[in-house]
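Archive record:
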Amino acid sequence: MQYKATTPDEYIEAIPEERKEPMRNLRKVLLDNLPKGFSEEINYGMIGYVVPHELYPDGYHCDPKLPLPFMNIASQKNFIAVYHAGIYADKDLMEWFVGEYHKYVKTKLDMGKSCVRFKKIDQIPLKLIGELATKLSVEAWIEMYETNIKKK
């Protein structure tokens, strides 16, 4: 779902009450664990963590006016989602995440290409999400991104 918010705080205030605390917890985990250099902003109508233009002037290839996206969190209609571009771009990272997931959560992993959906919002594996956030530095993400873009 899209919320009319211009800041992460406004976003959290706009979502349903039962989603606010899980989203605050996700946000805190990401802010505590993302490597230095990523910036938090509203990105694609979600709370996003991006490589700012100051560090990567080229921006996102689909729209260079936008900073390079890395992670997003969102309250969707039927779930809370964590989007991580690295698990889409790096097979080894995705395999690591899938392998670790069941150590934290007993429910079935509901995952798309870069999206992990949590329908049971009381079972979001915050520690695992935090560890995932640490796996790629800004520099490593830029290098991976550029390598993948050149392949296309």
Observations:
- DSSP finds six helices and six strands in the chain.
- The CA atoms of residues 37 and 139 lie 9 Å apart.
- The longest strand covers residues 68-75.
